[in-house]
Amino acid sequence: MTEHIIDPSTIEAENASRAADLHVDYDTLGERLDRRGVNIDAIKNKVAAFSVAVPSWGVGTGGTRFARFPGKGEPRDIFDKIEDCAVIAQLTQATKTVSLHIPWDKADPNRLKQAASRFNLGFDAMNSNTFSDAKGQLQSYKFGSLSAADKATRDQAIEHNLECIEIGKTIGSKALTVWIGDGSNFPGQVNFADQFGHYLDSMKSIYAALPDDWRLYTEHKMYEPAFYSTVVQDWGTNYLIARELGDKAYCLVDLGHHAPNVNIEMIVSRLAQFGKLGGFHFNDSKYGDDDLDAGSIDPYRLFLVFNELVDAETRYSDFHPAHMLDQSHNVTDPIESLMLSAADVQRAYAQALLVDREALKGAQDGNDALAATQALRLAYRTDVEPILAMARMEQGGAIDPLATYRASGYRAKVAEIRPEIAAGSSGIV
Amino acid sequence: MTEHIIDPSTIEAENASRAADLHVDYDTLGERLDRRGVNIDAIKNKVAAFSVAVPSWGVGTGGTRFARFPGKGEPRDIFDKIEDCAVIAQLTQATKTVSLHIPWDKADPNRLKQAASRFNLGFDAMNSNTFSDAKGQLQSYKFGSLSAADKATRDQAIEHNLECIEIGKTIGSKALTVWIGDGSNFPGQVNFADQFGHYLDSMKSIYAALPDDWRLYTEHKMYEPAFYSTVVQDWGTNYLIARELGDKAYCLVDLGHHAPNVNIEMIVSRLAQFGKLGGFHFNDSKYGDDDLDAGSIDPYRLFLVFNELVDAETRYSDFHPAHMLDQSHNVTDPIESLMLSAADVQRAYAQALLVDREALKGAQDGNDALAATQALRLAYRTDVEPILAMARMEQGGAIDPLATYRASGYRAKVAEIRPEIAAGSSGIV
Amino acid sequence: MTEHIIDPSTIEAENASRAADLHVDYDTLGERLDRRGVNIDAIKNKVAAFSVAVPSWGVGTGGTRFARFPGKGEPRDIFDKIEDCAVIAQLTQATKTVSLHIPWDKADPNRLKQAASRFNLGFDAMNSNTFSDAKGQLQSYKFGSLSAADKATRDQAIEHNLECIEIGKTIGSKALTVWIGDGSNFPGQVNFADQFGHYLDSMKSIYAALPDDWRLYTEHKMYEPAFYSTVVQDWGTNYLIARELGDKAYCLVDLGHHAPNVNIEMIVSRLAQFGKLGGFHFNDSKYGDDDLDAGSIDPYRLFLVFNELVDAETRYSDFHPAHMLDQSHNVTDPIESLMLSAADVQRAYAQALLVDREALKGAQDGNDALAATQALRLAYRTDVEPILAMARMEQGGAIDPLATYRASGYRAKVAEIRPEIAAGSSGIV
Amino acid sequence: MTEHIIDPSTIEAENASRAADLHVDYDTLGERLDRRGVNIDAIKNKVAAFSVAVPSWGVGTGGTRFARFPGKGEPRDIFDKIEDCAVIAQLTQATKTVSLHIPWDKADPNRLKQAASRFNLGFDAMNSNTFSDAKGQLQSYKFGSLSAADKATRDQAIEHNLECIEIGKTIGSKALTVWIGDGSNFPGQVNFADQFGHYLDSMKSIYAALPDDWRLYTEHKMYEPAFYSTVVQDWGTNYLIARELGDKAYCLVDLGHHAPNVNIEMIVSRLAQFGKLGGFHFNDSKYGDDDLDAGSIDPYRLFLVFNELVDAETRYSDFHPAHMLDQSHNVTDPIESLMLSAADVQRAYAQALLVDREALKGAQDGNDALAATQALRLAYRTDVEPILAMARMEQGGAIDPLATYRASGYRAKVAEIRPEIAAGSSGIV
């Protein structure tokens, strides 16, 4: 039986004050959708079945190279983090898995499994880390990891990824995500061809150890922490990697990892068309890899990404990309941000499901650009909040997760147990 | 025997006043390079053997959607254009071929051959045009050409490319360059997957007609004339195309066709490493596809591109990318800009040849980022103008092409023959 | 009495089939807003009073430097254009004025006034043009206009602006908008300080001729048609201009004229705070000055701009910025695009009016970032289409302007009268 | 008498092996410049008189939010930092001052003065820090400092800046530099007008305490650490600040703090023209605020900035902008990077001094864009290294600072005294 961290009576009380309005709104929306030939319950059921993973590191307060300002009740370890994830899952009913980051989340695998299953949580992809040095590590990643010029360093980085696979096997993960910061800060610092050759060789060693029912996700990023060049700098290089490695290798798309102005939804389409779309790290950005809350800056872009995903579902068999939030919460309570971000991802999905694809196709084939874009806008304009809220409520979640979370007093409670972290500056400028 | 448009005595007179200084500068530079273990004559010989093609459209004054301000003596047709190209070739000795654009340059192929061979000019890649409607054309390219939803439109665009190949065969071209403006201006206007499928199918038909000793170059561009999405938007899509088509298909890189901040030299390296670097459209840009003179905005970037090319020459067999200028001359005499741009491309090549590759490799392998980047900077800092000037002079060109061109009075002479074009606004805003 | 181009019975018939649903949707939305303490009729009245100007050039098909693909029934002159504008005004009831562009729209002022008043249209700001050469013009603007190095050229450009003011006085305009393309294509081509000095001097001459009840709007733009530098490149320079000129000088903001990633709503706030926000050219963009339909690419950004405007209304007295659409319609019927764009501007305004400003202020003062941003999102998520449609219907416009326009057959009718324009390429690449 | 950290005999020995070649290169360059009418010694003397400040934080290894990889012999405190700065000054003779950052560099002012004067170093601008929380600080800067909604927080931030002025007075600084990270991460989190109002009020309090012979520098930055909006986001806002505060307030330009593609040299010109150019933080960038070594990514841009400065010197009286390096050295020995960066700043200055300004002006006035840009290119192409090296040698510095530094064994020596810092990950992602 699933344990509940937030007392279900709190949720019930909060829902009680909102249920009547929700029913009215759901019904009137249902009627409007019915006019468009859409069955609201069918949409709601798809939304209810949708889940996005929460990364373990997301529940702690993030920071920048300038400073980090911790909040109250910061999780002390992976077990605290799992509890925070359980709160998110309970209130939103939209985040059924947790994604671990090694070495930070290393612990007895059986204890990990047990901790998660208490709350009926599963484990999503394993994340390795070779962008910083762990204590006691023999070789430094200062000049690269999987693509380093130095063989011993590459071997250490390979070994770390193999360990992540091992841990993942024990706890029931089915994927490894590899993102590295390798690159260079000066023209000439590395030879691009040699460095990429090293990277491919290292990845082949990791791929060879991947269980048959696993997937390997590689993630591209334009820059940061390297500021002149990055090994896996864009989807073009990412595609080359996935193709070189084999059928279990796929490309991961983080919405904040592209050059300014790039059309990301088109990249999604290309990768899907060529069978290499692995999944997403959802977040939003205005400038660079800002890791802001999904949908908080450009919600229409998030919708356009989901428009591609819904389209792809109808085109390609065995199409099931992974979904994960990957955000840095610097000025909000991470639990609050993650709850609303999960909802915003669901919102984009629900809106994409509303697109009249027959009308859209007709307009496209007839070169009726305006009618085509209006087919998208009509779906996007629809306020689907009643659908999301109904899906949550029917599964035991909160109609209003934010209000309910605040009403529960959870943060204050854990702040009593978890020690305050001194505000500190990284002093890195 | 090669005809000369500029009287050789003009060149001789201009060179005479500069030759003594050139010899001093060449010798003192030679001595400095000797200290670094570099033989200046070897560099000069490589520079002398280097050529970059001039596009026929480049010798006319360009413009923007806002206006075009023609200069005096604008070429009236392809034969005038060939004469202008001959002037550039004569003075710079760096531009041995002309690249035609169909339908604008359509003419009796034998007359074309004859016109070029008078000046010992060859023909570079053929360029098709399906980004605008030619007079009398049955189908419009308003909504796309090779990727259009409408089959008749696609067929017409294929047919046009086949015609370009036919013309090229007659005049001795060995390549076809395909750049299209197809894309969309609104989210939803096109289905990305369908559109790209159409494009690939069309290109396969064209590829099938390509002679065995030809190459097919496809060119990517982020945006413009389409402002929401473009079919061949980046090197990732361009690579997919070249791989789908086959061994004669290669990717063309225009330096102004990328997203802001993108590391272009790295794209050059990736394409070379995977055997798909076809060549370049050289120019420079600050904002978008500005088509400014090569090396006029960021000369170090041009050097870094050539640094990759020189590196690639030592790595890959059968590596011989095509070089062409592709610029829009809005405020200068196009002949002057093209002469100096050809020299700036040679300059970057000469500087890249000066890089001490052994020292560079040593620094890279030793993680000595500063020494590595200094190896590039030392080469780039070298003022190689005496090498370029000597290569020109020894082949009959001008030590100072700009001064010599101006002294020749060429522009005033053709302005007497070629009628003035009324300044006109396109009225497109 | 106002003439109607579209037969009112067509509108009535189209509205008849939609009115019942509209009433239901309006009422249910009203009820939801009521729960939030918002009176839907008050919002509707504000929306009904809102108007955005249509630029005369907007009703013709646009183009790029690569090509222009005219549609059927292109307006032949300013009188055709006024008729097209009247259709937009009739169906949307949101565009009460037309903005003229001289010299293209030059005609007998009395005839202009008469033509507009037939349809109860007024005239918005006058737009001068010195970015292209008009026939017969003595000095060319190839190297600049108001900021040119050559005094005769500057004087001619000043004179042209004075003429625009004169025309405007006759027809009842109350503002002059000055946008110039002056800049440079090469480092060193101009001296920045000298060029800006010339510009300021020229503008002072124009300002001196401005009637007391007029406003002078200057518009900044990052680049294009100049590709290295632009005289009025950003809001910083624009602000300096408005301050140097005097109290009647204001800054105009075109949403597509900024560097990538720039926070435009913040610029709006700064200009408003320092009393220099003149108004807007509405459109949307993904890459540069794409001139796409307002709200078609990033509708949330448009909302955030209006959020600033609604906030500013409560802060500053005498705050009444000008609103104009400035778009290029390359693949759609311009009338259709302008109708939907006017609605999308109204939509952003309506959504901004829904923001609970008290709750927002409370969240801001309490550093509750999440609650603050949710206050915006709640307003933005609201589908205000019933409010817009009701405002249109009640004023005699169409519930669904696009469907009604198509049903009216207007385009086909004018295509019979207005001759087809041959598809032509500008040949400028 | 000035103490020397590097044994002068080491410098002499290193110089001895290079002096003969240097004299040859200096003389042949002198001859070439003489042909252009330039006296090489005059240039050398200006270069010798030029100095750029070193920031105290620059001599420590930098990092990113992902990780920091310390090097050997990291300075432990401000006194170690001053010694590292003394090494840079001794070898380059180009960095005569150090810029302190409070609170990190807080120490007994008399000890500070003594430590610096031992090496004949002065103190440049004081830098306050309110972008991170110092230990024991009462109010947190999590939600802003000088612009925070909370008055107590603003007061604390003001107080800190007043303290910086006090320290600066004691040690002989003549300027305060204020850069804050205040902004927001979500639309709506702050009210732009209120926030800027708070900022201006706070700055007025600081300005009021500024001694008469001091300058106040404010620094704009587009983003980071705030990712939706930043209070002082661009030069437009920065100019408003300097104007609001008064005659002692100036704008500081950091080359990496602008939007993509922005023309920075033009901003330099505008600020100089309106009397508000305070100075520079030199570095280079490819993507964002990358803080890479000055001139390492786009050396021509650095030259174009100095081209404006040399031009401004001839135009404006009392023009003496401040120069400081502001870089983050993540993969190099910071001393090495700072030495070469100082030289690259001098290089740009020397090249700018070579521009034939009369010829340039003539080309500009004659609309000869090509000749104008060639006047810049000719100066930029000149390899001025012999001038820089001669200026260094004549003042007791090293012909080749990098080789001499490495030969001195300084880093190994301090690594014996200064304890190794454990590689650590910030764990902030």
UniProtKB/TrEMBL annotation, chains A, B, C, D:
InterPro entries: L-rhamnose_isomerase, L_rhamnose_iso, Xyl_isomerase-like_sf. Keywords: Isomerase, Manganese, Metal-binding. It comes from the Bacteria. GO terms for molecular function: isomerase activity. The keyword Repressor does not apply. The keyword Nucleotide-binding does not apply. This is L-rhamnose catabolism isomerase. The gene is rhaI.
